[in-house]
User: What shape does this take?
Amino acid sequence: MHRTQEMAAQVVEQVENGRTLTEALARLLRADADISTSTRGAVQDISYGVLRHKGELNYWLRTLVPKPLPYPALERLLLVALYQLAYTRAAPYAVVDHAVKHAGHIAAGRLKGLVNGVLRNFQRREQELRQSSAGNEEAHYNHPAWWIRSLRRAYPQDWQAVLLASNTHPPMTLRINARLGDAKQYLAKLEQAGMSATLLGSHALRLARPVPVRELPGFAEGEFSVQDFGAQQAAPMLDLADGMRVLDACAAPGGKTCHMLELNDIDVTALDVDESRLLRVHDNLARLKLSAKVIAGNAGQPDAWWDGKPFDRILADVPCTASGVVRRHPDIKWLRRPGDFAELAAQQQQLVDALWPLLASGGKMLYATCSIMPEENGQQLTAFLARHADARLVNAEQLLPCPDHDGFYYALVEKT
Assistant: This one.
């Protein structure tokens, strides 16, 4: 546990310094190839847990130690240990003992007594601290205060439910390959294998508990893909038909590209600016035995890659704050800043304006984000329609995080 605590504290430090949780974990685990599988899993679980509950943990720490400590590494160690005491089954004596030992390597060991005292004090006062933190919004909802204010303005009826859903553990949802079967048929296979799931749609189901994909029947054979049920709404919304020429403008890692190809016999161009991420697109296409033209290129600069032939459909799954997928990436809520929206909105506008001329007359473009913030969604759509007289809104939908899916926004626009 001593090593686990130390490594989790290092991951939290990297996130606080601006690195994503995914990057921080990969970087740490790359640096130490000898880490056991169980230690890797523990470091990941604790890192995710600390960031999921960071508002509350910060509140407890500041109540127990009102002034920031002169050594940030000690603060992160205490956040990790507080999380372990409050939310894991780790033996409390071991949590405290290992934290004190690790504190011995910081500040020449001068603050070992402080760490011991803080953690013992938390154990004595835990119920009192939990009740007190429930009265503090940032601690209670485990989101920054500015984020809470934004959601309250945007969703006066739903903001609390959205915040609480964003703090839950995400479900593992499967998309059944329509070329090979449907959700009911696959559910029967799962039950034969002793696993249970809930049907969400004709080709979607949610597992009762997450498992490694290779433990599920038919993964190598391409019978299913792992994809959130909210993300599964994109391909059907595009109103596809066999023979169409389709552009997936921000395709990596390829989930929506493959879903479109499972549903229809179409000519798909899968484009992404990040060449390394296109490896995932190739892998997914190969496993599902599907074919698409995969190109590395910037959707905002089509002159460099477009062949001049109009597309019947365009999926513009644009870069966004990812505020709708916080339960999968709890670091997002602490990494984002209020100014990010204006910067991303400018990128989104540039992308959709560059893609619009590539769409055939009578064609449709689906604007998509994994965001729940109006600045990236409804406001962006309104501005787009105002700029383009030949654009007509067919339909738009804002999905908010809930037990069945993450948060997504979709707007289907037709070129008249």
